[in-house]
Amino acid sequence: MKSPQLGFSFHPKWLSLTGSVEAFLRPLQEAGMTAVEFTLHPTDSDWEAFPPLIVQCQRMGLHCHFHAPYLEPYNIAGFGGEGRERIEALYRPAIILAERFAAYNGGPTTLVVHGARAADRSHGQLLQDTVAFLEWLLSRNTGLQIALENLPCNHTLIKIGTSRQDLMDIIETVASSDVGMCWDLGHDVLLGATTPPNKACLRRVIHVHVHDINPMGIDHHPLIYGLVPYRSWLQPLVCEGFNGCVTLEVNGQHVGYARAERIEEMLASSLHRLAEVIGR
Length: 280
What we know:
The chain has 280 residues and is an alpha/beta fold. It has helices spanning 21-30, 50-59, 84-102, 123-139, 164-174, 185-190, 199-202, 230-239, 260-278; strands spanning 5-9, 35-39, 63-67, 109-113, 117-118, 144-149, 158-159, 179-184, 205-210, 245-248. The chain has nine helices and ten strands. An eight-stranded parallel barrel has the order 1-2-3-4-6-8-9-10, surrounded by five helices.
């Protein structure tokens, strides 16, 4: 059985530690990393740095996956109705970039997507918006497999993705082998989960995010606090035959207080632990 890929959420800002792509990524490769994931926000001040960075990663033999934009103004609420044309135009630059580089990967390329969110639309409307957006992505024949992510709650908004059942319902409605779930273990802990998803749900997982949560409840840290049970939760997923990518999704701002070598050590150690669990 093919082993899952082991990924890291990469951004041009990480290079402020070393100045060199190879100097930053080689130690992570030595720890087991085989893939990188890029979150694509066209409004990012570093947007122009992404294409050459992706090229360098692919030349290093790394499989590149992508995360669709999700920070405001990126939100697919309204896609099933009056907002479709505007939202298509908003997302199109990121989708085109992911499509462009997917062709150079030696296997399936994942695009992680967040469901719709709003304070002024019903849960049913947001479900319809999310289904319509996924169907639009599929209609482009992008060569991408789409992973809908589970998300933590926001008490001021209705969000699609805060329940596993929402994700399963959407995946079954779209009914495409190119659409599955991005299981974020840290988000599941924040949602109050104490066990991994059931087998039916695990079989729809095509991409994974792993990160730790600090004692104050802030997520997207390296695996240093022990509050996310990644070992016991990933094992049943691997037993179900999962062969997608397990991505260490870390917010660089959370480790910005540490020296560069200490950050590299935390990241490499986290990846090494994940590699042991998934059999890399």
